[in-house]
Write a structure and sequence with these properties.
The complex is a heterodimer of chains A (529) and B (409). By secondary structure, chain A is mainly α. Chain A has helices spanning 44-58, 68-80, 86-94, 100-110, 112-127, 137-149, 154-162, 183-187, 192-204, 223-231, 269-275, 294-302, 310-323, 343-355, 360-368, 399-410, 414-419, 440-449, 451-456, 464-470, 475-486, 493-503, 508-520, 523-526; strands spanning 166-167, 236-240, 254-258, 395-396, 527-528. The longest helix of chain A has 16 residues, at 112-127. Chain B has 409 residues and is α/β, with parallel strands linked by helices. The chains are: A mainly alpha (529), B alpha/beta (409). Chain B: It holds the Pfam family DUF1501.
Chain lengths: 529, 409
């Protein structure tokens, strides 16, 4: 069920909250509108024109357009989280139509892999890797998956997530509906300040938690702002749904509910200071006056059309996902002292996103079709922040992408791979920086010598190598097939010659295992470029 | 030396490899720094925020009795009896103070020396040590983290990140060649991979960083020093002395690593976040910490390594003097303790003081940047040194920290 909330007259995304100057406190509606929503949604060409103007102004020569194979690999990784199947690469390269890139983007967004990949993405962002006991991760993922698969409006599912009530897990003793989204509250149940800080950071791009312990001279948010925001979560509690199976091993079902008054924080000093605060949104909106429970009122406020932060934050985040760098970096920090590059473009994209009915697929489609997204990763000049996306920012594959890509490239059974995988990525719980996982020597050793790699390159029923070698024909065709599976392109003539020579003079099986080992250990495979 | 290198030995493959090698060489010095008292550092990370008043800063009338130590002014909680014997080696800072009461932020602060700032990824202390005094082409990694999690190298690049040892009882994972692969075959693979890398002509620092990591991994695989990770080689009595725990084994491994030239080892003891059942849990944790830390100090001392090895034992903050309804204590960054020993630290002293409750620092407060400046100074790293981050920002080794002279010999 896709919402058709296209255009609501008078959609406004207020300006003046991410950069320049003091921000008016008080109702948001009073701040200056960027532009009214337009009946027609934005097109990639509009973004291209603005990017070209920015490059011209900076005197930057953009990188070349990426070739078809490079584009196809990249867009598969970004929209579905894994390398394309070899057959898909072949078909794409053979397609002669002018709009084949556009068609490929549409097809990927419509594929089941899209929802799977973004479920992984949001799961990591919202839950992190270290999920606390009793969080029913499977139910949470199921809920997320449903939102993404149906392309539910982003505002709708965030509202549901922030205000979720109900059972977190299926109880053993009764037939009861479960609300997977309630696990988000459960994860933070002992720590309302963290829940408040994370909610603000993820959905508004505002790091209000910096003011948890003291006011900073240079920053706008005060302790009292943080306390008011946190107070919105104090009337919610999670109680064990059934106390009758104390001995139950594994998950217990919790019932998340909103009370009429702040729950007794059983003398917890660290919570007490928030109880005296009146629940308030970031712009000072009183969350008690509307008659709904403060957490519900907060969820409503966050996703209101005139909320100046909400649409911007997600646009910036998704721009970072697709273009490798947000308008503001990190993507969840839109403070005034960290002004975005190309602010006008960010604002326009944000109001377009609202006008589209908070349609995430529309947003991703728009970005993937831009010229900037389709440049090579070879800059012609400046690197880094000043370069205004004049080249594609390459990144190492994250943990999920690497595993999924290995599985697709080699036909490895998933469960065997997964067991061996998690310890490699000692990812910081709250950390959005996949490029920063620790233990990289560990990872290199795993890729070179680990069991998963041994299985990936062996000739077993269903394995990539068994399939490739069972085909008739000479080495050239087999080398090509392995290239297509791993680095998603045909080998050059020089490469083919090199490998044919390499394969000579050693047992067939050994030679091919080593060829595949090299491909899977190459930077070309391990990076999204 | 059977180790293969991406860029040496086989003649240079291409411009990228050559550049990479030069970049790596230009980047770090392997000689001990002039003026350095310590050549290496062991950090015992007490994750979760230990209750200072139940460990290193006991108060009259507290739940745990205070016991005398070999240092006149230093009393410790009764569950650290073996550590008390080493009181003359310890400098206990009782006046650590910060404003970060959130685990993640405080852990970041105590691993990098900086308050989190979204516009820069600060390197962890171990990454700085690796860069500044680590060997350029070490057989063993310069920075090893045991029973993690640790923290990454930030903008210094992957090659300065920690090598993670999950379980000190086992050899590091995947350092041995698979059964079907002999050395000759591995070298063939390596050569072919090098050629593949040379053809991939994207000139990006992330790629050279990854290639450097592969080099390190390959060197480690072929190093005779790998045996260092096998703590079974130690006499049983020694292993017993450290305690039959992951942390105890980690401390023993840390001693072996430092002996073999590793510059920074972090060993993690988790579980100090005692919002509930503080006394029982803290007592148990001290039962793990006491034999491990005291054995480490005794062995370093007996092997004449204590003077050149800086030992640090700390967590991210203290805990409230107030006991909550669940017999727990909550986060308390206003005051906590950190313990230093060896590496040119003047032992047998207490530095700073909290009030009768342990709530506030009343004498000689120590900020995290100043603690870090003390540590870097002992290791011969100038705490004021500036390095330019990839986006052109100058970042100091410490956040304008000043070393505390009274702590030094």
């Amino acid at each position: 069920m896709k919402r058709t909330g296209w255009l609501v007259a008078g959609v406004v995304v207020a300006a003046g909250c991410a950069a320049s100057g003091p921000v008016p406190r008080g109702p948001v509606a009073a701040s200056k509108p960027v532009e009214a929503a337009r009946p027609v949604l934005m097109r990639p060409a509009e973004i291209d024109a603005r990017m070209r103007a920015a490059w011209k102004e900076k005197g930057i020569e953009p990188a070349e357009r990426v070739d078809d194979a490079g584009f196809f690999r990249r867009v598969n990784l970004d929209l579905t989280g894994r390398v394309p199947a070899a057959e898909a690469v072949e078909a794409f390269l053979a397609d002669k139509s002018a709009d084949k890139r556009q068609k490929a983007i549409d097809a990927l967004l419509a594929s089941p892999d899209y929802a799977e990949h973004f479920t992984n993405y949001w799961d990591r962002v919202l839950m992190g890797r270290n999920v606390r006991k009793n969080v029913d991760h499977a139910e949470f993922r199921r809920w997320l998956h449903e939102q993404l698969e149906k392309n539910v409006g982003y505002d709708v599912w965030v509202r549901e997530l922030v205000s979720a009530t109900g059972l977190t897990s299926a109880p053993r003793m009764a037939e009861q509906p479960v609300n997977g989204a309630a696990n988000w509250y459960l994860r933070y149940m002992d720590n309302p300040p963290d829940l408040a800080g994370t909610t603000s950071r993820l959905f508004l791009g505002v790091r209000i938690q910096c003011a948890q312990c003291h006011d900073h001279k240079t920053e706008k948010w005060t302790m009292s702002d943080f306390q008011g925001f946190t107070a919105s979560f104090l009337s919610t509690r999670a109680r064990l749904f059934y106390a009758d199976d104390k001995d139950k091993k594994g998950l217990r079902a919790y019932d998340v509910e909103d009370l009429d008054r702040p729950r007794r924080a059983a003398k917890r000093m660290d919570i007490a200071e928030y109880k005296s605060a009146a629940p308030r949104a970031l712009d000072g909106t009183d969350l008690l006056s509307g008659g709904s429970k403060p957490r519900t009122a907060l969820a409503e406020w966050i996703t209101r059309k005139d909320n100046p932060w909400f649409a911007r934050a997600i646009v910036n985040r998704m721009w970072g996902v697709m273009l490798g760098r947000g308008f503001s970096e990190p993507v969840d920090d839109l403070r005034e002292s960290n002004p975005p590059a190309m602010k006008d473009l960010l604002d326009t994209l944000a109001s377009d996103f609202v006008a589209s009915g908070y349609d995430l697929k529309h947003l991703l489609r728009l970005m993937a079709n831009t010229e900037a997204y389709q440049l090579t990763a070879r800059p012609r000049g400046q690197r880094g922040d000043g370069a205004a996306w004049s080249y594609y920012h390459m990144e190492q594959l994250g943990p999920d992408e690497l595993l999924d890509s290995l599985i697709r490239a080699t036909g490895l059974p998933r469960e065997k791979a997964e067991r061996q995988f998690s310890f490699l990525f000692d990812v910081d719980e709250e950390d959005d920086h996949d490029d920063e996982f620790d233990g990289t020597i560990t990872q290199a050793l795993w890729l070179m010598n680990g069991k998963v790699m041994q299985r990936s390159i062996q000739i077993a029923p269903g394995s990539a190598l068994a399939q490739v070698l069972s085909k008739p024909g000479g080495d050239e065709g087999k080398i090509r097939a392995l290239y297509m599976r791993t680095v998603s392109r045909p080998p050059t003539d020089e490469e083919t010659t090199h490998w044919v020579t390499f394969l000579k003079g050693q047992p067939v099986r050994q030679g091919y295992e080593d060829l595949l080992w090299v491909l899977l250990n190459s930077s070309e495979f391990l990076f999204n470029h | 030396m059977s180790a293969m290198h991406f860029s040496r030995r086989q003649g240079l493959v291409g411009g990228l490899a050559a550049l990479m090698t030069m970049a790596l060489r230009a980047e770090a010095g392997a000689e001990p720094k002039a003026g350095a008292k310590a050549k290496a550092c062991i950090v015992l990370w007490l994750n979760g925020g230990p209750s200072h008043v139940d460990t290193f800063d006991p108060k009259p009338g507290g739940r745990f009795k205070a016991i005398k130590t070999r240092a006149r002014d230093l009393w410790l909680a009764e569950h650290l009896p073996r550590l008390a014997d080493h009181g003359d080696k310890l400098a206990v800072i009782r006046s650590m103070t910060s404003k970060e009461g959130n685990h993640d932020r405080a852990r970041y602060l105590m691993h990098t020396g900086y308050i989190p700032n979204p516009t820069v990824r600060h390197p962890s202390f171990g990454a700085w040590v690796s860069r500044e005094i680590g060997a350029t082409s070490p057989e063993l990694p310069n920075f090893v983290s045991i029973a993690g999690p640790s923290m990454g190298p930030g903008f210094l690049g992957l090659q300065h990140g920690p090598f993670i040892v999950d379980d000190p009882a086992k050899k590091p994972a995947n350092v041995e060649l698979p059964a079907a692969v002999d050395e000759a075959r591995f070298q063939r693979r390596e050569g072919a991979l090098r050629a593949m890398e040379a053809r991939f002509d994207l000139d990006d620092p992330q790629i050279s960083g990854r290639q450097a990591v592969y080099e390190q991994a390959t060197r480690l695989m072929h190093s005779p020093k790998l045996a260092v990770f096998d703590i079974e080689q130690e006499p049983e009595a020694v292993r017993k002395a450290y305690g039959d725990t992951k942390f105890g084994r980690g401390c023993l491994l840390a001693r072996r690593l430092v002996e073999s030239g590793v510059k920074l080892v972090e060993v993690v003891l988790d579980g100090w976040d005692t919002h509930q059942d503080n006394f029982e849990r803290t007592r148990k944790l001290m039962g793990t910490l006491d034999p491990a830390l005291s054995s480490l100090l005794a062995e370093l001392h007996a092997r004449k390594l204590l003077d050149s090895t800086l030992v640090v034992c700390m967590g991210e903050f203290g805990r409230t003097p107030h006991i909550n309804a669940k017999e727990g204590r909550d986060h308390h960054p206003a005051a906590w303790s950190a313990v230093l020993a060896g590496g040119g630290i003047r032992g047998g002293q207490v530095y700073g003081k909290t009030d009768n409750e342990g709530a506030k620092v009343v004498e000689r407060p120590v900020t995290v940047p100043n603690l870090f400046a003390t540590l870097t100074t002992q290791l011969g790293i100038d705490p004021h040194k500036m390095v330019t981050s990839p986006i052109g920002r100058p970042i100091g080794v410490t956040d304008e920290g000043e070393p505390i002279r009274e702590l030094m010999t």
